[in-house]
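Fold it.
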Amino acid sequence: MIVLSDVHIITSEITPNTGKIRLTPSMQSLQEAVKQINRSNADIVIFTGDNIDSPDKALVVVFAKIISKLHKPYYVIPGNHDLLSINGVDKKEFYRLLNKFSANKIKDVPSAKTFRGGLVLIFMDGVNQYMPNRIGYFKEKDLIWLDKQLKKYKNRKVVIVQHFPVVDPNPARARTLYKQQEYLNLLEEHKNVIAIISGHEHHENEIQEDGILHISVPSLCTNSEYKQVDIEYRRDKTDYLIKSKIHSIRQE
């Protein structure tokens, strides 16, 4: 799979006489990433949030139209920059616009999808759409839902995808997840989670903790990079092997 995070699409003024939106570096980066991904053998593409720079309907449409050029199935979750109810961009409207102008495979979050080999991807978000901030906020009902899903798929290996990291990839800039320990306690009760993929910090890292690989994806906007994460069975078929690689749009 290919994972992109923190694209932060922003548009500039409309070009005089043509009525067209002038391309910005964030738009160009995403367009180039789409071209590269289409040439790859990736099976799916995931966007882990902060897809746009500010909660604006027009930006959602621009983002959706660019990713509509992908020739792979893609899955988009929101980040704290994507949503603000008072601006008219709540989760419902975000997904309405996203799915109107693209072929995104998620209609709402949280949600769970089963992929080849029995691997389960669970998509969370943790965004407070009424007062977005840099601290992830997973409501009690969302953690109850996650607990039920982990029980439902207790005999499957699970990868959780969300915007906010549970384990901070950059301790020097640590921003504690709201009620972080509750989330960690929940994970401790289940042994089928093999990885959590997140963005938000614009910092690439991988941390193994309590049997879970916490994979942090760099920002496409600030780093011009995205991440390939391959999850496949080991030769003895007893567990999954996780391998990753960074792709730079500046070098390819």
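The longest strand covers residues 225-233.
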